[in-house]
Amino acid sequence: MSWLYYLLEANLYLILFYGFYRLFLHRETFYGLNRYYLIISSILAFILPFLQLGFLMNEMVFNYTGYITIDEPQSYFTPENVLLAIYLSVSTILILKVLWGLRYIAKLMRNARKRKENGITFIEIQNSKVAFSFFNLLFIDPEMNQKATVLKHETVHIKQRHSFDILLFELVQISSWFNPILYFIKNDIRLIHEYLADDATTRADIAKYDYALFLIQNSYGTQSVTLSNHFFNSSLLKNRISMLNQKKSAKWARLKLLFVIPLSAFMLFLSTTAFTKDYGTIQLGQKKESLTIVLQDTTKKKSDKKKLPPPPPKEPIKAEAKKVTEIRINEPKVNKIRFAPPIVKKDSKKLPPSIVTQDAKPVPPPPPPIEPKATKGKVLQIKLAPPPPIEPKPAKKS
């Protein structure tokens, strides 16, 4: 739900900026500065959540890539999805409202008489008693009383491009419709537009009293267009008349705007220390800890998986000596040659030893002679062969 946290933080800053305006600036008569303050502060409120002061960040973040997930049955009715559906539904309605206002302006232009002069398109609407401007389009009833005064008033809106401000705050309202302060900001920016136009109109051509009386006589029973600067706007009439008689602010009162600097610094402090960000931020300044942090999300958000808390960081392991892996190469097998024992025959020559290969079966040697063993109680008889006969020697001759 990072989108919701971002919107809540941005709207908190928007409330603080607008509170400063209501306390110190909204009764001052430097309308141009007030206008730029509301525009710039509203834009800055949506930028500040992405900024952080690096020298205030003391925590050390360790990056890890491992994660554990548990499969669960998929469900679309989660609190985040319900809030997102409600948010988008209301935003869609506000978008349709803006488109309807643009359609109404286009419808008025379709059948009206048009003429262009000095870059301004004059659109005459008969018997309408209306006068309003939208960018460089000026809608006016050609038979209106004091037409020159009304034209000068609306020309100020066109030249200062007040319609851009109105569209800007319409977009802010679409994105932050849940913030009630935004409706007051829209009303104040319209008041500033009318103050600027009234001040320029009453500066030389018409007295302030006559101008206020003219506003009162023509402000009732008129129809206002949402996206336009309407001359006869009864909801703003009381404030417009009171500011006509307001005493001009002193020049030193502009110094109040300098207090915006510590206010912005306080918001940066909150953005850095009070809010945990799970989206990309821009760090201003160096960190106290000289640690390089790599922000890389290796996990994918899935509605059917639930993340478990990350494992605690592991202590660094000392570098071990590199082990040398021995690679043994199998030696080729060598066929061994075995020799059979020689065979000895009686009165025969020794034969050469026969060669026996690995495939042939070796001839076992003859078993040694077994000597007879004497047994208890028996006499071993040994038969000797008779001696050979002795031949008589022949007698010597005398």
Write the layout of secondary structure elements.
Elements: H1 2-24, H2 31-45, E1 51-53, E2 69-71, H3 79-110, E3 113-117, E4 120-124, E5 131-134, E6 137-140, H4 147-159, H5 162-175, H6 181-201, H7 208-218, E7 229-230, H8 237-244, H9 260-273, E8 282-284, E9 305-307, E10 338-339, E11 355-356
Parallel strand pairs: 1-8, 4-6
Antiparallel strand pairs: 2-9, 3-4, 5-6, 5-7, 10-11
Helix pairs in contact: 1-2, 1-9, 2-6, 3-5, 4-6, 5-6, 6-8, 7-8
What does this structure look like?
About 8% of the residues have low confidence. The chain is α+β, with helices and mostly antiparallel strands. The radius of gyration is 53 Å and the shape is elongated. A 5-stranded mixed beta sheet has the order 3-4-6-5-7. Helix 4 crosses helix 6. It contains 9 helices and 11 strands. The relative contact order is 0.15. The protein has 2 domains: 129 residues, no CATH class; 168 residues, no CATH class.
Brief sketch in words of this structure:
By secondary structure, this protein is of the alpha+beta class. It is 38% helix and 9% strand. Strands 3-4-6-5-7 form a 5-stranded mixed β-sheet. Strands 1-8 form a two-stranded parallel sheet.
Compressed to H and E, one letter per element, the order equals HHEEHEEEEHHHHEHHEEEE
Using the CA coordinates, give the radius of gyration: 53 Å
Name the beta content range: 5-15%
- The total domain count is 2
Overall geometric form: elongated
* CA-CA gap between termini: 151 Å
Kindly report the spatial arrangement of strands forming the biggest sheet.
3-4-6-5-7
Structural class estimated from helices and strands:
alpha+beta
Helix content: 25-40%
Spans with pLDDT under 50 lasting ≥5 residues?
289-293, 297-306, 319-327, 353-360
Strand element count = 11
- Major pleated sheet: 5 strands, mixed
The average pLDDT value, as a whole number, equals: 76
What is the number of helices?
9
